[in-house]
Structure formats: C-alpha cells, structure tokens
C-alpha cells in the first residue's frame, strides 16, 4: 500500500484534465493567435477555459489572465501593482508567512527602495490584524496576503482585510495568493474585495505549468514581460493550450462544498487519532483549512522521518516544496521552538484521500517512532 499525502505540493492529474490535454494535443493544436481555422479552434478553446476559471471566482472572463502557475502569477501581481502605482506611494505590506514567490518579490522591492512592512502572526500562523491596521496608510500602494497558509493551513481574514483597506481610505491594491484556497473553499472575488488573485492548476488535480491571475477590471498593472501581445499584454507569450485545456478539465471537476465536508470529517478523525499519540504536537490551528495538517514530533528530525515514511510508500513533506532544504520561515515566524521546527511534517489531503491512507500513515508513524533513535 502507499499513501500520497503531499497534495499541497502537487496533486495527481484527474481524468477530465488528462482527456482535455490529449484532445488539445491531437486535434486542437493550433496557435490561438493565428487567424486560420486551426487558430480559431484553439482561440475558442482558450475562451472556454477562461470562462470556466472565471466562473469559479465569480468574475468576468476578461478579468482572467493565464500564467505559468502560482509563482509567475504572484510575481506579476506584486511587481505589476507596485510599479504601476509607485507615484501614489512607496509602502507595500505583506505577512511574514507568505509563500517564497511573494516573500522574495517583496525582498526585491525593498532593495529597489520600497518601504516593506511584514506583518507577524500568532503561534498558529494567524495574522496580527491590529498590526496590519496600524501599517495601512495613505502611502500604501499594495497589500498582499495569502488566503490559506501553505504550511499550516491557517485561514487569513481576507474579506476583513479588503474592508479595512477601504475603511482606511488607502489607495492600496489588495492581492490575494489563493493558490492553496482555490478549489477547496468558495472564492468570490467581488465579495472578498480582491483587486488581484492568484490561482494554480496543479493544486486542484490539473497539470503543472499553468495558472491564472484575476485582475479586477480597471486595475492598473505593469507587465513584467513583453512580447507578442497575448493575454492583452499582461502576460505575453503563446498560450500553452494543452496545459490550459487540462486546467479547464480540473476546474470543471471541482466539487468544492462536498469535498470540503468530506475532508473536514477525515481531518477531524485523523487529528483525534494524532492527539492520542504521546509526543505529537499539532501546529495547525483548530480552524485551519482541513486539507493541511502540520505536526511536530520533538526529538525526531523531519528528514529522518520523511525518509523512513517514504520507504514505506508514504509521501508527506516537511514544509513548502518550494523551500527544499531550508528551515521553515513560516514556523520560524510563528515563533515555534527549534524542537518543533526541526521535527515538523506537513500532511496534506485532496478530495481523493481515503481514511485507509491516513490510518496507514498513523501505523507507519508509530513504527517510525519506535525504530528511529531520538536525536
């Protein structure tokens, strides 16, 4: 038996996504910018995919721009918004627990002369809302906060953040990194007050290498790349139609409400069993996204546990897959002790996860704790 429990890193491609990709490769392989019949077929497919993604976010199709994934989408949102609005001010705000594609973008903005404010969190990864309120002012041009933390699953109050920006009468654009939230909780960009929102395909059982950026109509964004004018110059370059078709297939298979209910029950049963084990610490908050459970086993090193579990056919991670080999900046920002940071494991579920897989993980975890010497 094996148990794939690293779905926050990537997910297995679903059947509808596979079928769409094959169809695009075999019969709809034209360039959507070409004016002949093959190009028109591809352009029609592109429009259909744009409409499918827009429907999931409750926005207009013209507000969806395809990207190569979450990293490019976040970079485009952060740099594009900061550069386009720098005449209004130079303060930009993010949190201390963002994904590296946001974190490092803000590091670069700081080197370029922007005033960067990084908001801290509590010990469960929840944003310090009072500090955020104090930081937003008339010189703030961008606030970028993730909807769901990719390591511990903490859900941030993004709707309240948008309302706060309006209440403070700040010119700031609000960007939401929704890569871990998309397809798992309902997202309505208008109700949430988003100006920009990043989503990705391979977190929802679509292919890698494709994602989308929502850009609210009327929002000024400076492109970070130039080219042939595709995606209305926001993200130029020939659209990867097989990947986009696969993304559409994954979107069309989403069952957000039903899947959330199923995963919540699975997570609750799983965490109850975890708490029965001596020495296991749950780092995720009680109200976290149920798809992510972050735990620590003080006295055991994450890498050693990962290797043992992998040999048993169990696949988990010790944090963000984009920070391989580095100590978790998220758990560090949460001010957890080294004993918890160095022994952390992230178990992340998908709508295809079964109770049998989680029970197998628990059985092998018990075996690992008996077999491995504490450091």
Describe this entry's structure for a reader.
By secondary structure, the protein is of the alpha/beta class. It has a domain at 3-11 and 255-371: Aspartate Aminotransferase, domain 1. The protein contains 13 helices and 12 strands. It has a 7-stranded mixed sheet with strand order 2-8-7-6-5-3-4, sandwiched between helices. Strand 3 (91-95), helix 4 and strand 4 (115-119) form a beta-alpha-beta unit. Helix 2 packs parallel to helix 8 (241-252) and helix 9 packs parallel to helix 13 (355-371). The longest helix has 21 residues, at 37-57. The radius of gyration is 21 Å and the shape is globular.
CATH architectural grouping of the domain at 3-11 and 255-371: Alpha-Beta Complex
Distance between the termini: 29 Å
State the secondary-structure class. Answer: alpha/beta
SSE sequence, one letter per element: EHHEHEHEHEHEHEEHHEEHEHHEH
- Average of the residue pLDDT scores: 95
Radius of gyration: 21 Å
Q: What proportion of the residues form beta strands (DSSP E)?
A: 5-15%
**What topology, given as strand order, has the largest sheet?**
2-8-7-6-5-3-4
Report the major sheet: 7 strands, mixed
Count of strand segments: 12
CATH top level class name of the domain at 3-11 and 255-371: Alpha Beta
Low-confidence stretches: none
- Could you estimate the helical fraction of the residues in percent? 25-40%
The gross shape turns out to be globular
CATH fold label of the domain at 3-11 and 255-371: Aspartate Aminotransferase, domain 1
Number of helices: 13
CATH superfamily of the domain at 3-11 and 255-371: Aspartate Aminotransferase, domain 1
């Amino acid at each position: 038996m094996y148990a794939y429990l690293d779905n926050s890193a990537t997910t297995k491609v679903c059947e509808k996504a596979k079928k769409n990709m094959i169809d695009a490769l075999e019969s709809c392989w034209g360039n959507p910018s070409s004016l002949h019949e093959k190009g028109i077929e591809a352009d029609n497919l592109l429009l259909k995919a744009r409409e499918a993604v827009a429907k999931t976010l409750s926005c207009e199709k013209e507000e969806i721009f395809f990207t190569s994934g979450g990293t490019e989408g976040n970079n485009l949102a952060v740099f594009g918004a900061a550069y386009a609005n720098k005449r209004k001010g130079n303060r930009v705000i993010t949190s201390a627990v963002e994904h590296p594609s946001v974190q490092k973008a803000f590091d670069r903005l700081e080197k370029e002369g922007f005033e960067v404010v990084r908001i801290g969190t509590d010990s469960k990864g929840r944003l310090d809302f009072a500090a955020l309120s104090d930081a937003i002012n008339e010189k703030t041009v961008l606030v970028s906060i993730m909807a769901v933390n990719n390591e511990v699953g903490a859900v941030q109050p993004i709707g309240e953040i948008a309302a706060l920006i309006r209440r403070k009468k700040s010119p700031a654009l609000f960007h939401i990194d929704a890569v871990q939230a998309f397809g798992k909780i309902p997202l309505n960009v208008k109700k949430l007050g988003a100006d920009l929102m990043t989503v990705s395909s391979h977190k929802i059982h679509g292919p890698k290498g494709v994602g989308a950026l929502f850009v609210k109509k009327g929002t000024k964004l400076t492109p970070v790349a130039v080219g042939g004018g595709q995606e209305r110059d926001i993200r130029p370059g020939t659209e990867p139609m097989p990947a986009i078709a696969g993304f559409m297939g994954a979107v069309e298979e989403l069952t957000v409400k039903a899947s959330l209910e199923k995963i919540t029950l699975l997570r609750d049963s799983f965490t109850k069993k975890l708490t029965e084990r001596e020495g296991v610490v749950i780092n995720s908050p009680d109200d976290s996204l149920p798809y992510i459970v972050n735990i620590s086993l003080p006295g055991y090193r994450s890498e050693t546990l990962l290797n043992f579990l992998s040999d048993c056919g169990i696949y988990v991670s010790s944090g963000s897959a984009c920070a391989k080999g580095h100590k978790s900046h998220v758990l560090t920002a949460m001010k957890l002790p080294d004993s918890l940071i160095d022994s952390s494991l992230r178990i992340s579920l998908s709508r295809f996860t079964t109770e049998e897989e989680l029970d197998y993980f628990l059985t092998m975890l018990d075996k690992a704790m008996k077999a491995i010497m504490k450091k």
